[in-house]
Amino acid sequence: MHTPNNEPEDQQPEQIDASHGFERTDVRVTGIVVFLTALSIFVAVVGALSYGIGRAIDKHMAREDGPRSKWASTVDVRQLGNMPNNPELQNEMAKMTQQFPTPRVQTDDGNQDVEDLHAREDLLLEHYSWGDQSQGKVRIPIDRAIQLLAQRGLPVAATVQHAPLMTGDEEPTIAAPLTSGFARTGYELDQAEAQKVEAGRR
Hints:
Layout: H1 29-65, H2 87-98, H3 111-126, E1 129-132, E2 137-139, H4 142-152, H5 186-201
Antiparallel strand pairs: 1-2
């Protein structure tokens, strides 16, 4: 017959005597000693292996470097002391860091790069420049190009014969764009406003 908790009657939970208010048995020292001994042996073995591998690597490097000479010798750089600052060297280093090859890390989310791109585009759109000097081709400002286009008109394309529309088809229509597709960024507008304020102060 089994008890309601499905345990045999002869396997009752051990009763703990708590009348003294503290633990009456001592910690087993044997387990601690075995653990510390095994840990010490492990540390000693790992240390010996590390030392042996280091010596083997040093010997291999010394064998590759060859015998010591005035061209292959260890120098204590602490004896040289602190080297004096060289302003020219510092300037060269500053130039090198400023002219680091692309791609560079952007510190302003690319705002300055976009402004520089638009400035280069403005130079091409607002000034005369050579397109191909060998063929005498010149780029003209966009305002002048608009004037010439308004005077001369757009070239008329030849009429293209389309096949008759199928049932349910419609003639395609071209919607005029809502904008010119170009707008200054907020960063550029802020820079332009700051330049206006600075020019007003002068």
